[in-house]
Design brief:
Pfam families: Usp. This protein has 9 helices and 12 strands. The longest helix is centred in the first third of the chain and has 30 residues.
Length: 266
Amino acid sequence: MENNNYKILVLSDLKKYANSTIKSSVSLAKMIDAEIVLFHVKEHIDILERENQLSSMRTLNEEHKNTKKKINTIVNDISKEYDVKIKGDYAFGKVKEEIEKQLQIHNPDIVVLGQRESAPFKLIGDSITHFMLKKFNGVIMIFSNENTLIPNEKIALGVLNGSTKFLKNELSNDLKTHSKAPIKSFRILNSKNANSPKLNEEKMVEFVFEENANAMATISSYLQKNNISLLCVDRDKNKPNNITNTNISLKEVVRKLNVSLIVSEA
C-alpha cells in the first residue's frame, strides 16, 4: 500500500484505559500506514487545587516530571512491542484551548478518543467528544475500553445506517482490506429512510431494526453476537451530532454501544 501520510492524534487522560486506547490506535495506524501523536492535557487547577502559593511551583515541577516520565514509558513500551513510532507530548492549561492548538499544529486526519466508564472525557457543562464533533471536521475514532483492537489482527467491520459517506473514502478501502468478510450492516429504519437503497457492497450481511426506545439496546446485543470490533458511523450533514437519517444522537450511540466507533468527516 502506498504511504498516504495519514496523521492520527490520540487524546488521552493517561488513566486506567490509556494503554488500551493507544494499542487500538496502533492497530489502526498499521492498517492505514499512519503517524501517531499521543497528547495529554491537564488543567492547572487539577494540579494546584489544594496547594498554597509557596508549594505550588514545586508541585507543578513535580507534575511535569511525572507526566513526561509516564508518557515516555507508555510510548516506549508500545513502540517497542509493535515496532511503530509514536510521538508523545503534553500540556498544562485549559483543556479545550490546548487541544485546539494541537489540531492546528498537527492538522490530523483522525482524532482518537477513549471512552470513560461514565461519559467520554466529561468536563463541566460539556464533553470532549461533543467539543470535537463541533471543532474537528475530520474522522473521529472513539475506542471501546473493553474491546481493544489488536495490532496486526484483522477486524470485524460493521456499518451503522449505511455509513455511505465513510465507505466512499480511501480510508475505508484500507480498513476493508484488513477486515474479515463479510462486513455487517446495522440499519435503523424510520419514515425518513424507509425507502433508502441498500449499500452496494459485495457479500454484506444486513440487519434491520425499527427506530424505537429499544433500538440501541437491540443493536448492542447484535454487535456483541457478531463480534464487531469497529463500527462505522456517519454524521448527519444537517444535524452533525446525530447519526445519518435518524433522531438518534451520536452521544447515545457512544453511551449505549460497547464497541469502537469510527465517525465520518463532517
